[in-house]
Amino acid sequence: MNDSSLKLLWTPSAERISKTRMHDYMQWLQKDKGLQFSDYNSLWQWSVEHLEEFWETVWQYFDIHSTQPYTRILDTHKMPGARWFEGAQLNLTEQLFRFHRDDAEEQRPAIIFQSEPDIAEGKTHSISWKEMRRQIASVAHALRQMGVQRGDRVAAYLPNIPETVIAFYACASIGAIWSSCSPDMGSPSVLDRFAQINPKVLIAVDGYRYGGKNFDRLSVVETLQQSLPSVEHTILLPVLHTALPAGNFASWDSLLQHEVPIQFEPLPFDHPLWIVYSSGTTGMPKPIVHSQGGTLLEALKGHGLQMDLGEQDRFHWFSTTGWIMWNSQVTGLLLGATICLFDGNPGYPDMGTLWKFAAQTQATFFGAGAAYFANCVKAGIEPRKLANLDRIRSVGSTGSPLSEEGFEWIYQQVGSDIMLASISGGTDIAASFVGSCPIMPLYSGEIQSRSLGIAVYAMDEQGKPLHDEVGELVVTKPMPSMPLFFWNDAGNRRYLDSYFDVYPGWWRHGDWIRITPRGGAVIYGRSDTTINRHGIRMGTSEIYRAVESLPEVLDSLVVDLEYLGRESYMPLFVVLRAGLQLNEELVTAIKTTIRTALSSRHVPNEIFAVTEIPRTLSGKKMELPVKKLLMGTPIDKIANRDAMANPGSLGYFEKFAAARS
Asked: Is the pTM value of this prediction over 0.85?
């Protein structure tokens, strides 16, 4: 792609730049450190060439409190195994309350919340910083009474509600290790995760509401109780029922009855904070352990500098508790921002729901998965006609590459003077490799910048950096938020195999990336599902961008089947608008669009209409599982249905594979 062809969508004004935290940080570097940078790219270059010095400035600029000073910043550049800020003793929850002032001003909300039953009445609920502090102190005290100590695991089967945030920060204050699953996951999928970590306490809801329907989960909770022998206490939060059922349950309300001062356990920088999980669609989910200190540093840098969040912001990112963006949203509190939580179906009763929620909460930052914005485009939603969105300064997108059409739609329909924070990172690092920069121009289809302190490059197969060419996303120096380890991973075998098997000593993430001449980035999809037609490699997102630009096509999936001893075969599967059929005219239009936008080599062999594309719970297209299925792998070996958003979608592909075997 010709980089100069990308459309300039936004340039921050001099006034806006002067008010950003990034600008203030650069001024601070000049004043306090004698470091002057002409632009962001030169700052990024310094941040990766002087890794220790950079991360120390983040610590100092954000005034991280430590009961004991660190003795060194980084012991080695070796990955994995680098140790950061040894000697420091800190607590994530204590950092949260740097913004707490016990006076009248502290009635400002820390959390604003809405669930589906509130939509019809247009109601929201809020919790002040003062009340949040009280509840965290009370829940932490109750957990201590249950015997929870530092290092114990607390498992949460909870939706995206304020109680989940309270419970998480209560655990962090003790030094307990948090792990959550969304209640839309069934018991086999949840057990695949929680059984690996032996939790001492389970906190769960009895059900949830989604799309106007109630889903009772009490039987799942009882199965979890019976199947997790390590669980000594189960705390139940009633959502669908008014009273506790019979059985060994404590009520959530009983945890809130303690009027006690808050306590913060001093912890080493690398003390585990939470365990998050890979998707689990192709095998047992990887239990990924992140540290208190690494998460704190990345949240302050990523949210504070890259996304320009602060005390004045109201931060919404639509997510479930099973996606890393929930973790990202709750750490927005570390910058003093108010977080705006929505629990329910973003398309219920219509696709305007989240935009109306943003207006009601006066959100300044609105984030969602790229698939959500694509659905808004296809549905013809015009957000500014639905709600007053004048307070929105930034829009966030992640989960999959956002198309150029999606970029332009946001500026046309949401606001012309906003920062589009298109980011790409992952559960693996609980951070962004590439993302937004509030002092740089923004171009259609291009992520603005490489994140400070992260030495990310596009690499060829020999490990040589590529300039303005597509290559593997590789990180060559350690990051504070890299996983400490995988839980119960003897000898770090799964960890090493997951990221360090291709480029020993360097992190390979499994994405195709191009670093543009401006220093931005374009993500082309997963490198393990690359289309390699007649010697020309291309990320699948390029094909999706072309195909889904057609108004008739709602969704699509393409796989390149390279059969041993047979010619490559590439089918394309499309979801069409209701009432449409895949006739010869539409097939021709799809092929012509691909040929024009990409090349004749990337025109599929055949095109098939399907009712839905298989997706993970976090919304990712399941390209590799479908490819394996069509290559002959049994269906029970390629996907865990409980880790899917739409497991029924696999039926078509199973029949398709059988018919062609």
From this structure: yes
The total of other beta-carbon atoms located within 10 Å of residue 87's CB is 12
CA separation, residue 268 to residues 92, 264, 273, 291, 430 (Å): 11, 13, 11, 9, 19
Q: Among 76, 81, 29, which Cα is nearest to 51's? A: 76
Q: Which domain holds residue 386?
A: 89-515
Can you list the pairs that 575-581 forms with residues at least 24 positions away whose Cβ atoms lie under 8 Å? 575/609, 575/610, 575/611, 575/612, 575/613, 576/552, 576/609, 577/378, 577/551, 577/552, 577/553, 580/552, 581/609
- Would you call 426 helix, strand, or coil by DSSP? strand
305: DSSP letter: I
Contact 593, 552 (CB under 8 A): no
Q: Which tens digit of pLDDT belongs to each residue from 398-444?
A: 987 888 889 999 999 999 999 999 999 989 999 999 999 999 999 99
Q: Is residue 145 part of a domain?
A: yes
Q: Looking at the 3D structure of the chain, how many domains does it have? A: 2
Same domain, 304 and 349: yes
What is the distance between the alpha carbons of residues 600 and 585, in angstroms, rounded to a whole number?
18
523: phi then psi, degrees, rounded to nearest 5: -100, 135
Q: Which residues are within 8 A (CB) of 64 and not within 5 positions of it... i.e. 6 or more apart?
A: 90, 95, 296, 297, 300
